[in-house]
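Structure Section — protein described below
Tokens — whole-number codes for backbone shape
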Amino acid sequence: MKPSLRSPFPTNEQELLLKACLLSGELMQTSYNFWKSLVNIETDVEHGSFRQLPLLYLNLNRHPINDELMPRLKGMYRKSWSNNQILFFKMGQVLRLLHQKGIRTMVLKGVALSLLAYKNFAVRPMADMDIMVPVSQANLTIDWLKQNGWKSSVETNDEYYLNHSKSVTLINDENTELDLHWYPLDECFGIMHDEMFWDKAVTMTVSGENTLALCPADELLLTIVHGLMPNVEPPIRWIADSYILITSKDLKIDWERLVEYAKKLSVIIQVKEGLKYLKVNFSAPIPEDIYNRIQLIKPSLADRILYNQGKRRGVYVYHPSFEKILSVYADYLKNTTHKGMVSQHIGFLKFMRQRTKGKNYFRILVYYLSVLLKSNRKQNKTGA
């Protein structure tokens, strides 16, 4: 059965919870009281919201608020702090291993946001580690990690992933998950050079190991684009991450860079929608001139097709056979540097040959024709 995708934009209850987590004063208090009246914390809090409860505790405790849920929330906060400390320690070990081989590293997402934006080890939910290395060192890094106890989480074609994806997932004997990136986003394929994103990176230290993180503008771009992909789990944490980045007193967002990279990577639709939501619903302090300029940018037809296909597919979702061809072709269009109809479709056959580990072109054609026939039979039976 195909899992149902959740919208990246929150439900009414989720938005009330996020406002209680992020805002202050009377608006925070009102949002919290309303949220609590609508949900039963024992039965009604789905996983995406549950992971925000340590942040809720921190915000309530700052005011402070005397509430019967505070002891329970405090326990969740402490457990999150403990779990994240273990993850930070393990990331330090991986960084140390990579540095021993002379591999340059950058930390993405949860760990970077915890240290640079939230400045707290407990409130940013994390389940894995995200580390980026330069494109030129990706192959070396995978080989080195495999020599030191890591393996692919599923059987993969490493050559395909290196040439047509942004990352690969590895696990070790402790079942710790590492997402090893060479691009922060899929959209970087064919565009990103070695210094793109690295040129403005900021320094940070994780468990005693010096490394890098994306600059605030790049981190905000990654947060919004990744967050606006529908998921089987409500991906609402992108709102908290974005709001914390935008409102941080210590971080300065280079808005011109954000606009430049959004256009260059063809993700202007995601940035427009994300910033609009943050401004309208959370009054995020986005500069008016930047906001107005972004809203006036018209995405290309290809950008709209790829964005709409991303909304259909979501993240880590099983695709029924009738969607396979379209989803694979969208991946190819997103990554290809070929121009012109003939060149693009010759390139697509080569892309599929690499994706299928060298199967000949005839077998590829037969396979996808069979997929279409099965799809048509299924649809005819359903219609009957």
User: Anything to note?
Assistant: The longest helix spans residues 70-100. The radius of gyration is 22 Å. The CA atoms of residues 57 and 73 lie 6 Å apart. Strands lie at 106-107, 129-132, 151-152, 167-171, 177-181, 202-206, 209-213.
